[in-house]
Amino acid sequence: MKPISDVRVVKTSESAFIKPFSILFKRGGHEIKWDLIDSHNGVYVIIYNRTRNTLVCVKQFRPGVYYKSIPENDRPKEGLIDIDKYPPSLGLTVEFCAGIVDKNKSLEEIAVDEIREECGYEVKVSDIQKIISCRSSVGSSGSVMTFFYTEVTDQMKISEGGGLEHEGEDIEVVEYTIPQIRDIITQSEVLNVSASFLFGMMWFLTNKIVLCT
Ligand SMILES: Nc1ncnc2c1ncn2[C@@H]1O[C@H](COP(=O)(O)OP(=O)(O)O[C@H]2O[C@H](CO)[C@@H](O)[C@H](O)[C@H]2O)[C@@H](O)[C@H]1O
């Protein structure tokens, strides 16, 4: 992965990805204001590599995770962050291959694109199995996240993956064995993974573990 440097906090008023707004309503005659973020729906793909008995995941620098790793009293509201004191590695997450729903394509087609771009495997739409759709960030967004499952083999690997450079993506593909996954999800410290990752791992261990024993 390329080195991260010159990390600065700036105020944002316009964004193609995150749009703050509020909803006003009355409950029992009392007016309530609820602050929200309009954000894209998303797809997540749990990818099992049958050749090597591994789960294919992606590692990347997530600015929000980095920022929230800094103690609150040292987190600037604006300006440079001292990366010698707070190394960018604090913001590295492990995730499932995922993408926002911002194209006029089916969710399955978006999943296939993300698998190719991020992980370098060529998968057919018909090989994508839907697991479940649910809500994310119910207090602030309510976007729909849809989980898929697919299996790949080493023969289906067509590139290194890594994401689209013109979109600023710089993704490392990482593969975990089943014992490694068990280690990750049973740690007691704050993990640099999301609840969606933990859900997907638990789903896999519960429903597919028979493949791996
Ligand atoms: N907040 C943001 N600010 C600036 N640029 C952004 C952005 N979100 C996306 N982008 C841009 O959109 C590109 C494409 O994103 P992707 O569809 O690959 O989703 P990503 O893997 O970033 O996760 C995304 O989609 C998954 C699945 O919904 C979510 O879990 C995850 O939070 C979300 O970032 C990114 O490379 C980036 O250029």
Automatic annotation (TrEMBL):
Domain Nudix hydrolase: residue ranges: 38-199
Gene Ontology terms describing biological process: nucleoside phosphate metabolic process; ribose phosphate metabolic process
Catalysed reactions listed for this entry: UDP-sugar + H2O = UMP + alpha-D-aldose 1-phosphate
Cofactor entry: Mg(2+)
EC number(s) on file: 3.6.1.45
Positions of transmembrane segments: none
GO molecular function, one term: UDP-sugar diphosphatase activity
InterPro entries xrefs: NDP_pyrophosphatase, NUDIX_hydrolase-like_dom_sf, NUDIX_hydrolase_dom
Keywords: Cytoplasm, Hydrolase, Magnesium
Subcellular location field: Cytoplasm
GO CC annotation terms, alphabetical: cytoplasm
Role: Hydrolyzes UDP-glucose to glucose 1-phosphate and UMP and ADP-ribose to ribose 5-phosphate and AMP. The physiological substrate is probably UDP-glucose. Poor activity on other substrates such as ADP-glucose, CDP-glucose, GDP-glucose and GDP-mannose.
PANTHER family given in the database record: UDP/ADP-SUGAR PYROPHOSPHATASE (PTHR11839), URIDINE DIPHOSPHATE GLUCOSE PYROPHOSPHATASE NUDT14 (PTHR11839:SF15)
Subunit structure: Homodimer.
Cited NCBIfam families: nudix-type nucleoside diphosphatase, YffH/AdpP family
Record protein name field: Uridine diphosphate glucose pyrophosphatase NUDT14
Organism expressing this protein natively: Sipha flava (yellow sugarcane aphid)
Gene it is expressed from: NUDT14
